[in-house]
Amino acid sequence: MSTRIKRQRGVSMFIVLVMVMLSSLLVIWASRTALFSEMITGNDSDYQRAFEAAQAMVRDAEFDIMGTLADGKTECRNGAAYVGCRELAGGVFFPVDEADFQNLSDTLRTATPACVRGICLGNNGKFLNSKSELDAMKEVAATYGAYTGAKATAASNPLLITSAGKAPRAWYWVEVLPYDIGLATKGGLAQTYAPDADSPYVYRITAVAKGLKPNSMAVLQTVFVRKPVD
């Protein structure tokens, strides 16, 4: 009788060990699943933060082109020393007429890349192909509020905040592209989206924002047209 009892105890111990092992595997699996889900959520949140920062950069660039402060209404600067948000001295500002564009072209052609303080010549649609090209563009790009006076606070997107000793995490640059105003006479979309005949230029805006994670980055590119005031 005692031998049978010992055998039953041995089987029970084996069953308990199997159950403990299965429970441990389930706990490990659940932990890995939770960690993986947390990583995905964190990466997605960081990308969304970068994407929203890039959107804010595009809007800031549009205000810069229009020559207004961040409210979109008030003129950036007054006086003969400024054109819109940019100083007249140095010749790097968004052109008002053909003479301005020629002066801008002459200035930027001597730069490598052909861009100064976020204003660039058109590059025939070429996009960034390497980290070295991106790093070169960041050196000549504009940062949030540098010309429009827009301020990023602790309550806003942290990627937009630039302070002393802290490298920016978001940039924009604008390519100035001449527009054949004669296309507007052909009707259709060419007429609907044609710029002001007195300032026949369209602006290709590229905004880049790096997330807080090393490999997180958002890039937006859009075309902006200054329409004549009715």
Automatic annotation (TrEMBL):
Pfam families: PilX, PilX_N. The chain crosses the membrane at residues 12-31. Residues 140-225 form the PilX/PilW C-terminal domain. InterPro entries: PilX/PilW_C, PilX_N_dom. The lineage of its organism: Bacteria, Pseudomonadati, Pseudomonadota, Betaproteobacteria, Burkholderiales. Keywords: Membrane, Transmembrane, Transmembrane helix. Residues 9-56 form the Type 4 fimbrial biogenesis protein PilX N-terminal domain. This is PilX N-terminal domain-containing pilus assembly protein.
